[in-house]
Structures are given as structure tokens and as C-alpha cells.
Design a protein that fits this description.
By secondary structure, the chain is mainly alpha-helical. It has one domain. The protein is 68% helix and 0% strand. The N and C termini lie far apart (41 Å). The N terminus is likely disordered.
Length: 66
């Protein structure tokens, strides 16, 4: 588990440690929610205040137009 947290960087301390998940199912639901927020809702300064999903979609459109 620590390797996954270090490698991805996305699961936050607050989500993993402070939630105190009781089982694997609740941990998976929590991480799924965290990743959804991180990729679909949270704006990133290094992506010029877009979400990762918005940036990915813009690359897909550019590839189709090329």
C-alpha cells in the first residue's frame, strides 16, 4: 500500500489515514471518489487551471483534427 501511495501521489493523507477505512471495499470506494475528484473536478495550476480530464480531451480533439 505505501508503494502505491508514494508512486501515484494522488491519494491524500486525509483520505487514507484520517478516514480509517474498515475494509478493502470501503477503501476502494474512497480511493475511487478521490481519483474522480482529482481528475474531473480539481483544477491544476500546472495544467493552466484545467482538470486532467479536460486536458486529455483537448488532446483527443487535436489528434482528430490533425
Amino acid at each position: 500500500m505505501l508503494i502505491f501511495i508514494y508512486f501515484s501521489g494522488a491519494p491524500k493523507y486525509e483520505d487514507i489515514y484520517l478516514q480509517g477505512y474498515e475494509d478493502i471495499g470501503s477503501l476502494k470506494r474512497g480511493l475511487r471518489s478521490d481519483f474522480r475528484f482529482y481528475n474531473q473536478e480539481r483544477f491544476h495550476q500546472n495544467l493552466e487551471y484545467e482538470t486532467p480530464d479536460q486536458r486529455y480531451e483537448s488532446f483527443q480533439v487535436q489528434a482528430l483534427e490533425a
